[in-house]
Amino acid sequence: MNFFKKIFSSEKKENLDKGLEKTKTSFFSKLSKAIAGKSKVDDEVLDNLEEILVSSDVGVNTTLRIIERIEERVSRDKYMGTDELNLILREEIAGLLSETNSGEATDFEVPADKKPYVIMVVGVNGVGKTTTIGKLAHQFKQAGHKVVLGAADTFRAAAIDQLQVWADKVGVPIVRQQMGSDPASVAFDTLQSAVSQNADVVIIDTAGRLHNKVNLMNELTKVKRVMQKVVGDTPHDVLLVLDGSTGQNAFEQAKQFTAATEVTCLAVTKLDGTAKGGVVIGISDQFRVPVKYIGVGEGIEDLQVFNKYEFVDSFFK
C-alpha cells in the first residue's frame, strides 16, 4: 500500500483539505518564490526554505531538524533538483510526525481496557476548549459510546454554562456545581456518576488559568488524586487544547502546560481560519506529545482524529 494512501472517508478528507487551504496556499506561494529560477537544491534554496518553515510557525528547532535531514539527503545524492523538493519535504515531515504520532487511527476509539475512559482537558480560555469537549462528546456518542461530562472549570460561571449548552446540544449528561466550587469535588462526583451509569467515556473540563503555574499545578494534581479514589488509574489522557491560529503563542502555552501537568496528547483547533497550520508539526515534534485531534472547521463534525499521513497528504496536495 502506498505510504500516503490510508483509509479515510472522502468527506473527512475534503474537510481536512479545505481546513488546511490557507496554510498550504501561504506555504507554497513562498516556496515557489524561493526556488524560482533554480534547478538545484543548494545552500541558498535551503536558507530560503528554513526561513519559510519558521515563518509558517513550524518552529525554529523543528525547522532545523527538517533542514538537517534534507542536507543529509543532498550530500548523499550529490545532485537534487528543486522539482524533487516537495516530495522530500513531504517524506521528512511525515517521518518527523511518525516519531510522536505512531498510531493511524481514523475514528474515535475508546481503549478496550479502560472503562470508563477518562479524559481530563486542559488549556487556556479562548482556545476552543469547551467547543472541543462538546465536539468530542458528539463524536464519541456517534461512535456508540455513553458519555458523561464534568464541569470542573468552576473559576468562571460562563465556562459551566457553556459546557451545559454543549451537553444539551449533544444530548449527554453533565455533572456540575456552583461557580467557586472545588474542581476536585466536581471531578469526583462526575466519576462516581459515570461509574453508576456504566458510562464508556468521561470528559472533565478544567480551569484555564496560567497566571500562576504553581496554583495550576497544585489544582490539577489534586483533581487527578481525587479522581483516582473512584477509578484507580485516571485520568487515562490529559488532553491539552491549543489554538492553531495563535502560532508561536501556542508553543508557549504548550510549554507552560507540559511543565504544570503531564500532558499525554494534544488537540489543535481553528486550523481552518489560519495560515499557521505548520504549528501542528512543530508542537508535536518539540514537546514529544502526540497530536490526537485537529479542528478544521466550525461544524460539529469538523473535529477530526489526527492522522499524520492524511495531514501531510493534504498539506502537500
From TrEMBL:
Residues binding GTP, per UniProt: 123-130, 205-209, 269-272
Keyword Cell membrane set for record: yes
SMART domains: AAA, SRP54, SRP54_N
Domain of life: Bacteria
GO molecular function: GTP binding; GTPase activity; signal recognition particle binding
Gene3D superfamilies (alphabetical): P-loop containing nucleotide triphosphate hydrolases (3.40.50.300), Signal recognition particle SRP54, nucleotide-binding domain (1.20.120.140)
Keywords: Cell membrane, Cytoplasm, GTP-binding, Hydrolase, Membrane, Nucleotide-binding, Receptor
EC top class named in words: hydrolase
SUPFAM superfamilies: Domain of the SRP/SRP receptor G-proteins, P-loop containing nucleoside triphosphate hydrolases
BP GO annotations: SRP-dependent cotranslational protein targeting to membrane
Main location as per UniProt: membrane
Mode of membrane association: Peripheral membrane protein
PANTHER family: SIGNAL RECOGNITION PARTICLE RECEPTOR SUBUNIT ALPHA
UniProt family annotation: Belongs to the GTP-binding SRP family. FtsY subfamily.
Subunit structure: Part of the signal recognition particle protein translocation system, which is composed of SRP and FtsY.
The name this protein goes by in its record: Signal recognition particle receptor FtsY
Species of provenance: Flavobacterium cyanobacteriorum
